[in-house]
Amino acid sequence: MRKLYIAGNWKMNLVPSEAAKYAKELAAATKDAKVKIMIAPTAVCLPAVAEAVKGSKVIVAAQNVNDHEKGAYTGEISCAMLKDIGVTNVILGHSERRQYYGETNEFINKKVLFALANGMDIDLCVGETLEEREGGKLEKVLSDQINIGLDGVTPEQMAHVTIAYEPVWAIGTGKTATPEDANSAHAFIRGLIEKKFGKTVAENQIIQYGGSVKPSNVKELMACEHIDGALVGGASLTLDQFLPIINC
User: Which of these is catalytic: 128, 166, 186, 226?
Assistant: First the structure.
């Protein structure tokens, strides 16, 4: 049975002192949690947060990583740098990286392969924009993001991959993804995984939902057959919002 996986993407929020304080409080508050928990602070907060949650159930992830071991890549972070401070998880392919920084499926695939080869666990984000959804391109977009993004990944490596479906059209558009919308997309993604890696991998695949997850809608979403957790944005920045989601 797939275990629920609740992750918080802090994006560009919280300075190191704030992040460490919150992470320590979160670790203490979730010591008896039944779900898998991850938080992804900004790069400058990673050392302090990793230290703050040491020995707890809380996993710390980076929000991005480079596809090279080292070298002249100003502003970038390598897998070795992350692992040296105890961080072995990373979010890749987030919609904001795709939209604002032009990351393509092919480039994301390079990062996926390099991160997996370097012993990292990844959270691969996929999802369509409003224009793509209204244009009937949902399945084409998801197929490309999954098939290209995971090209070259082995069935064995999929144990280290979590998929996060985040409909970009449900973020900041005034439109809301219903549990039915989300579950349907998750079922389609699971079907893609089955075609690419086989039934056993697909049945074990954790697929999170991301897109305005909050305490008021998390129970409905988590009750869906194909939704195995959540990648939470703004609601992961305070205990008042994040704990009810973790304890749903």
Answer: 166
Handedness of CA 231, 235, 237, 240 (dihedral sign): negative
Q: Is 68 a catalytic residue?
A: no
User: Residues 6 or more apart from 74 whose CB is under 8 A from it?
Assistant: none
Give the end-to-end CA distance of the chain in Å, rounded to a whole number: 18
- 0.90 exceeded by pTM: yes
- Which of the listed CATH numbers 3.20.20.70, 2.40.50.140, 3.10.20.30, 3.40.50.620 matches domain 5-246? 3.20.20.70
CA distance 141 to 45: 33
Strand ranges in 130-243 using DSSP code E only, listed in sequence order: 161-165, 207-209, 229-232
Catalytic residue, candidates 94, 96, 103, 226: 94
Tens digits of per-residue pLDDT, 64-112? 999 999 999 999 999 999 999 999 999 999 999 999 999 999 999 999 9
**Chain-centroid distance, C-alpha 138:** 19
Annotation marks residue 94 as catalytic: yes
Closest CA to 217 of 189, 176, 165: 176
**Are 24 and 52 contacting, i.e. CB atoms less than 8 angstroms apart?**
yes
Helix (H, G, I), strand (E, B) or coil at 108: helix
